[in-house]
Predict the structure.
Amino acid sequence: MIRYIAPGSLFLIAILAAVAASGPPSTASWHLTSESEALIPDATLRAQIFRALDAAESAGTDPSISHFKVRAATVVTVNKEDHIVLGGNTEYEVPEAIHGESSLLNHVTTLYGPDVTRHAVRFVAFFSERCGVSGSCGDCRDFQHAVTDYAHLFIVCGQASDHTVRVTRFSDQLVDEDKFPVASRDSLPITSGELAQLTQSAAEARLGGVTLFTTARHTGAAGLSFSGKIYRAAGGDDAAFHYRFPIGGLLQQAATERDYFLRAIVVVGEKGQWPAVSYRDRQYGFESSSFNHEAGKPPIALIITDGLGHFRATTFEAALPHAFSTVNFMPQALKDFLAAHQTQTPTAK
Ligand SMILES: [Zn+2]
């Protein structure tokens, strides 16, 4: 949420700092919005949130590309003692980053172990110049989903200018695959023939990829562009655990051919099961769909199938609520980029 108001918002981390919370009480006049007061009736938790916000202000960051600082903190109670833990963003090389919230949770685990991360982290608080409405990037959603008691996790943004504090539920950023609306062949924005082609292509893609570590979650994806081409990819893992995501993979192939506008993407998993679509992959899809939006085209249809003739369909906009893309941060740069990379007859794949 919120902390993402500049291009930099995409990137992060930071500092490994745990500060015993034995300092003086907060003197900052943090105050919850009325909606947030309803979410956090507990006075002890409120005090912890305000304390974390005070501490987050000094979280170290190194956003060398975006210059956007993501300063995060939480308070965990371990053996009846409160501890403040900080996280911040670091950016490096090609736009890569360690993100603030992932940094923070990793620090909690480093200091107190994974059980504390799962059971004692009740909120992630961001100290921000201005609180907006964006949530975490897809990858940080995957991470928070995996390592915290995510159903009960609160996301806090403390706005520096007026000390307003906004609290939301992390679960507002999640949409499980079984919540994707059931779709019939007729309700989709592609023809039955195109759907059959994409489904078959994705299923064939899934036969490949690299699955030395990935077992249950292996998927294949195929996408159809407005120029009529199909691109496909399967997930690929490696020893460094830098997983290559199927939707990201096919979108990269399409972009390589300057074929930037996709109509629909179909994802398949094991026959008889609905495939998981990770939030990181949704982030890639959302970014690409924002190109469509910029060009006045409909959003990309995200379609999943169980391989037995059943389909669910949504959009990346719906599957990644409160998302951000370069459209938000660099609207003119994106317009210029797409204009400069137009192809009348996109190169065949
Ligand atoms: Zn992130």
